[in-house]
Amino acid sequence: MKAFIDRVFKSKQRKQKELLDEIANTKVKEQATEAVVEAIIKEVKKDIKKEAEVVYPKPNHFPDCNCFKCIRWRNQNA
Q1: How far is CA 14 from CA 6, 9, 10, 39, 53, in A?
Q2: Taking a C-beta distance cutoff of 8 angstroms, is the pair 73, 60 a contact?
Q3: Could you tell me if 56 and 73 are in contact, meaning their C-beta atoms sit under 8 angstroms apart?
Q4: End-to-end CA, the chain
Q5: How many helices (DSSP H) and strands (DSSP E) are in the chain?
Q6: Helix, strand or coil for residue 67?
């Protein structure tokens, strides 16, 4: 009878350890994915800032010109 009780007790302990290990692994995986996502977000924000800082030079056309360069230059600060 004692051997049976020991076997059941040990199997329950093993199951608990396995569950704890699985929980720990999932937490580590979640933290790793969160870190990766945060790094990607930072990179994207840097790229967006670089793209937003484009300044178009003033074209040397006559004052009432409506070509795309003049319109783009007028609208960049609007």
Answers
A1: 12, 9, 6, 37, 59
A2: no
A3: yes
A4: 87
A5: 2, 0
A6: coil
Q: In 10 A of CB 69, how many CB atoms?
A: 13
Q: How far is Cα 34 from Cα 20, in angstroms, rounded to an integer?
A: 21
Distance, CA of 49 to chain centre:
16
pLDDT digits (tens, 9 = 90+) for 1-52: 788 888 888 888 898 888 888 887 788 888 888 888 999 999 988 887 776 6
Q: Give percent helix, percent strand, percent coil of the chain, each to the nearest 5.
A: 75, 0, 25
Confidence of residue 77 (pLDDT cuts 50, 70, 90): low
Those residues with Cβ within 8 angstroms of residue 55's Cβ, 6 or more apart along the chain or in another chain? 76
pTM, 2 dp: 0.42
How long, in residues, is the chain?
Answer: 78
